[in-house]
Amino acid sequence: MHPPSERDIRDSFVNCSQGEAKRLSLPRDLGERPWDDLDFLGWQDISAPDRCYLVAEREDGGLTGVALRLPAKRRRSFLHRNLCSLCLTTHPGSGVALMTARRAGAAGRKGDSVGDYICTDLDCSLYTRGRKAPAPGGRIEESLSVEEQIARTRANLFAFLDKVLATAG
């Protein structure tokens, strides 16, 4: 992913108003992110812990940003593991959560939303590439190459974004 500007990030959001996009808190460490290893920029809003944001670079170079909501109560049990639907990493406790996004356009204004189970730290790209290690047993040993796993993670990401962008529910 190419490092986007603050304006590009704010302009990319498809499921919130321009005013909401203007007011959202951006990560303070944009200059320190490992951009070459990211399929998307993801962060949790430090002022609102139930909100996360995801900005992905599409194949055409354009950005698509979505505002996400986390459930108010998240499972904390370390005996239970959940699987991220983007990168297929498992985490104990609250390491994976159902994140919901309002649909773009009129559907979202009517209250339609979509959701997926995603790593709560939004570091799917780093898990896929082996740059960040989940809890023991968090990555399934696979016969796919890292490049094939990256392609799968990107396909899962874009499928989720396409659901957010879909006009009919």
Structure description:
The chain contains 5 helices and 7 strands. By secondary structure, the protein is of the alpha+beta class. The protein has helices at 6-11, 18-23, 105-109, 124-128, 146-165, and strands spanning 40-44, 51-57, 63-69, 81-83, 90-92, 96-102, 113-119. β1 (40-44) and β2 (51-57) form a beta hairpin. The mean pLDDT is 90.
Fold blueprint:
Layout: H1 6-11, H2 18-23, E1 40-44, E2 51-57, E3 63-69, E4 81-83, E5 90-92, E6 96-102, H3 105-109, E7 113-119, H4 124-128, H5 146-165
Antiparallel strand pairs: 1-2, 2-3, 4-5, 6-7
In short, what is this structure?
The chain is α+β, with helices and mostly antiparallel strands and 169 residues long.
Q: What is the CA-atom radius of gyration, in angstroms?
A: 15 Å
SS-derived structural category: alpha+beta
Task: Note the gap between the termini.
Answer: 30 Å
In order across it, which strands form the biggest sheet? 1-2-3
Overall shape: it is: globular
Q: What is the averaged pLDDT score?
A: 90
Number of domains: 1
Approximate strand percentage: 15-25%
Taking the sheet with the most strands, its summary is:
3 strands, antiparallel
Count of alpha/pi helices: 5
Along the chain, the helix and strand elements come as HHEEEEEEHEHH
Helix content range of the residues, please? 10-25%
Q: Could you tell me the number of beta strands?
A: 7
Low-confidence stretches: none
